[in-house]
Specification:
By secondary structure, the protein is of the alpha/beta class. It is built from 6 helices and 14 strands.
Amino acid sequence: MRKRKLLLSALLAIAAIGTITCNHASALNKMERTLPHTDYYFGDTVGVSVIGHASLYLTYQRTTIAVDPYSAQADYAKLPAADIILITHEHADHYDPKALREVTRPFTVFVAPPRVAKLLEQDGFGDHTIITLGNGDNTLMNPDLKHISIEAVPAYNTLRLKPDGEPYHPAGYGNGYMVTLGTHRIYIAGDTEQTPEMAAMAGTIDIAFLPKNLPYTMTDAEFVAAAKALKPKVLYPYHFFDIDREALRRALDGEGIIVK
């Protein structure tokens, strides 16, 4: 009997050590999974963390939103898990299953255009909630994610064509997103040129992410024209290969736009 008690005590001690070790590892993992520099807006209620290229995070209340996670831009194993993941389209620098797996948890909700929704199913994310939005569709998120709505906005090329004459991003191929957090509107343009749908949102945007690169999106001059038409309060150039921020700021001087 004494041997059994000693054995039981030993097993309980090992289990306790294992639990402590697991909890310690979990705590370390949680500590490591932090965002890089975050800009806060609107009484610190909305956070913006730029990861690189077209990848970014938005935070609002207790909700974390990841946009187009891309492994080439960061080690996503060290970035926070996402409550919502927005994917604009299926190109490899926007739809990256490796990065998605690092930040997906059982509670994660995907928002994606139809073509990407099919890829998510094929790539093993089918047990998650996948909200499929075509251009113009709008969803009021799960009631647990209060005060958040997302609208799919057209993102496409008319001028930028591949050698075969097809646009790099045909109309209806992918989405930009209008993310409304409480009363604050954040426009994530996706891969697009200046479009009539973009111009129609003039004066309604708090924060905008506009792309600036060739041959896939806009020239610097087109980027400036789009920003002047859109008139966001805060403007983040993104999806660029190179950038002269000071030149862009000079070009937008007097427009009342903060260029980040």
